[in-house]
Amino acid sequence: GGTQKLSELRIVLMGYKGAGKSSVGNIILNREEFDLKRTAQCVKRQREVADRHITVIEAPGWSHTIPVCDIPELLKQEILLSLSLCPPGPHVVLLVIRVDTFLDGVKRHVLHGYVQLLGERVWSHTIVLFTHGDFLGDTSIEQHIESEGEDLRWLVEKCGNRYQVLNNKNKSDDTQIKHLLEKIEETVTQNNSRVLTINEKIFQRLEEIKRADKRAKERMKRMKKQREVTRSQMSDTQKLSELRIVLMGCKYSGKSSVGNIILNREEFDLKTTAQCVKRQREVADRHITVIEAPGWLWNGPVKKSPELLKQEILLSVSLCPPGPHVVLLVIPGDSIFKDIERKVLQGYVDLLGERVWSHTIVLFTFGDFLGDTSIEQHIEREGEDLQWLVEKCGNRYHVLNNNNSSDDTQIKDLLEKIEETVMKKNGCHFEIDRKILQRVEEIKRADERAEERMKRMKKQREMIRSMTSDTQKLSELRIVLMGYKYSGKSSVGNIILNRKETENREEFDLKRTAQCVKRQREVADRHITVIEAPGWWMNEPVKKSPELLKQEILLSVSLCPPGPHVVLLVIRVDIRFKETERKVFQGYVDLLGERVWSHTIVLFNRGDFLGDTSIEQHIEREGEDLQWLVEKCGNRYQVLNNEKRSDDTQIKDLLEKIEETVTQNNSCCFKMDRKAEQERMKKHIKKIVRSHMLSEDEMSNTVSLGSSAYGSFRSGSDADNSSIFASSCSKDRPISFGGDSHHLSELRIVLMGYKGAGKSSVGNIILNREEFDLKRTAQCDSHHLSELRIVLMGSRGAGKSSSGNIILNREEFDLKRTAQCVKRQREVADRHITVIEAPGWWINEPVDQSSELLKQEILLSVSLCPPGPHVVLLVIRADIRFKEFYRKVFQGYVDLLSERVWSHTIVLFTFGDFLGDTSIEQHIEREGEDLQWLVEKCGNRYQVLNNKNKSDDTQIKDLLEKIEETVTQNNHFNTETFLHDMKQRRKAKKETPKGHKVNKQKRRMQQSIEHDNLRMMSDLHRSVSSMSSGYGSSSSIPGSVENLGPSIKMNVSSCSEHSEQVELKD
């Protein structure tokens, strides 16, 4: 039948902040029922409209870019509550989106997470409601959907192609509401008049919310009683005339704002600082002193922070003698607070000793986020980590509404709470224990030593300048930059060469490179050459680094003949420098020989982090390892402030420091130790020709050739992976390199090696000039495989199907999820490409909690492309935070295929458009050690796909080349061993003790496993059969059924019959 007009409609509005949900509610109800201010609670309004009783629930909005896993529980729970506020459930969910806001991969992923809170069934009850329709003009909504790209189209299709537009400027137009109500009624009809009911999982969570709210009321009563008892013991005369307060918290928690609210004027600058800031004022008849300690990164543990930060936190309590009355621990009320936040915060507070907790109050900022929700409800709902913190502070907590800073009552309540805390401690303030006093005294001594260091430095420079005349100013400077990855070498190079961020290009690309980069420019009447050597991982010693890196560092000093005037050792001032970092640095610098230290200056980057702290204070406070490095470099150091790139004085000072260093070295540049250089070359060439039967005498003579050409040496290769083969060199006819009378008049040499091994560079070294172009050539060098077999693995929603479609250059894979492997083939770029998509796992579900079906399908994936895949692409979204838990989940699923699979695996980042101008290397580094571990586990093989630029053939070309390089480095994955492992697992299951009871669920699971095993064998048999014509017979096919062993062969003959029977039964 037709659409039935309903007498009652129940509607839930969902969407991000600023999407216009409140306005939509007002338009639907035809009057101003919803306040346009944001709220953290659901809001319910009802009214009679067009002969219908309409109930509208507005769920709180979310931020565009913050995924559901990173928001406080309060917000998630309020979204869940929206369903229960209109029993028996809403007829429809309106997903509100501004038509003038672009929905990219990040926003789509975020939105999906929030809607998914209500369960998978919610999508069949959802309509996409576009607001601000006036923005479209004459463009139809259909044209807009098509032009916006696949993310918006995905969303509309996910909602069953149900969508509507509202023109906010034409609110009085009743026809648009009439059309919307009709669309809602059509949706109800499509769902057979069924409403969206609460499933069991959501019901349980709602029950937990009720229990949490009940506990919140009890907490409120306890808090009230506790305060009444304290007040009864206080007299009016006990009101303190002075209050000393320390503010602690992570960066951007709102400490400066809190200080300004307490002192009732703008005393604290809202910019972040690395020093304590002290301010005082008379407020409410009290002399109040507020110390703001510098903040820490919310996820940066204390052990990884620089000494400067830790010491400033220690100093904070000594800046208001005899000690603070209270420490206010500032926590944003609108942020998540889980295990990682709790551990990090605990680490920093514990710097002040265990006793500080009894003087601490938790101060929640951004209380306006809570709306009508009490702080007790927030504490109970957020979970045990926040509850632990509050209880650790003796259940002392307070909330500040930053949007209502003029409200004197909230400050009055806070000051009273502080006085109550002091009274409970018998009027005592926090006393600094002896251990902290000793550390504070050490800081003071370090600052005294810093002053002495500054004086010595000044005297040293004056003496050098007295030896230098104006005519000795160098017309040319040659500089080498060294340092770990992301120390800021490229930025330093750009600052030195005076390339501004506003110019069309910078000399040094900020993306990470594995090769030296050379740039030159005229700056301040000098011809400056800057060589940037590739960086090393901060915690990776030289002995564990690839040969390529070491050779490039050696090469760096030869790229500016006759040698560099100075080596700048670049170090970030905002990262700790301890023994590990010192040993790593020393190892890499020592590659250049002991003499390099006399030509080295320590260049501290990110100097803005120091604030008013001098670099000498930082050196002395950081400890003996940094001091050792500075002294090893002859006490030559300089600081660059990255926020003041346009400040020419800092570059002028650096260039003067460099010229002073040259003067100290008698105007000599740095040259490699010839003897050490020859020894290194001997070892290097020995590796290259080890497999070609040269004797030791011949080797020593060969070194003279190599070392003479070292000035232009550019190996860039791992010697073990490249070979130089002379056709006249053999066992039967050894070659003598000894004297002029014995050398060959002609040598014919073939260079072989994988892409990037450095063949062109080796050719240039042999010929002693640039004959070979360092770019890859399409002739000979780039012969590609005629066939590629690829397996895609990853979590659900990672973009495996899209990646498969991009690789095969057409829509082969359905974007809907499947529980089985999907195999597709096509000719692409003169290659026959087979792509297997393994089913995805939930990103937060470990392998031991997943179904056997999923695990069996992942195991099956590698057998669907016999004799095995060339590569496994591990698909990860670039727009998702990759945490330790996710890393463990990923590792578990990949390990199903055995440890060896990692050497055949490439990490494929999807949604690369999310990165914008950020390089994938920057993303990997910023994301943290878990993503870095994964990339390194895969041999540092990774690639990025931009899902919005599918027509870009270059990204697929690059990916296919990366795959072929991986194949070159490996033999093909061997399915036989893998199948043997499966056989052993089945055998182990059969040997399980009989005493175990098996319930119905386990029996069904076992049947599913047997079905899958049969299907796997059937598919493998069919795959092998289809290949037999190409190989002549199955016996000649690598990994064929004939070679799988008797235990597997015995099942194959009847495999097809069995699988058909099973399919019929299913």
Automatic annotation (TrEMBL):
Domain of life: Eukaryota
UniProt biased composition (Low complexity): 1023-1040
Region (Disordered): 983-1066
UniProt keyword annotation of Nucleotide-binding present: yes
Compositionally biased region (Basic and acidic residues): 1009-1022, 1057-1066
GO MF annotation terms: GTP binding
Alphabetic keyword roster: GTP-binding, Nucleotide-binding
Composition bias type Basic residues, residue spans: 983-1005
The AIG1-type G domain, residue ranges: 6-207, 240-439, 474-679, 785-987
Gene3D superfamilies reported for this sequence: P-loop containing nucleotide triphosphate hydrolases (3.40.50.300)
Record-linked InterPro entries: G_AIG1, GIMA/IAN/Toc, P-loop_NTPase
Homology family: Belongs to the TRAFAC class TrmE-Era-EngA-EngB-Septin-like GTPase superfamily. AIG1/Toc34/Toc159-like paraseptin GTPase family. IAN subfamily.
PANTHER family, sorted: GTPASE IMAP FAMILY MEMBER 4-LIKE-RELATED (PTHR10903:SF107), GTPASE, IMAP FAMILY MEMBER-RELATED (PTHR10903)
Protein name: GTPase IMAP family member 8-like
Gene source species: Triplophysa rosa
Upper classification of the organism: Eukaryota, Metazoa, Chordata, Craniata, Vertebrata
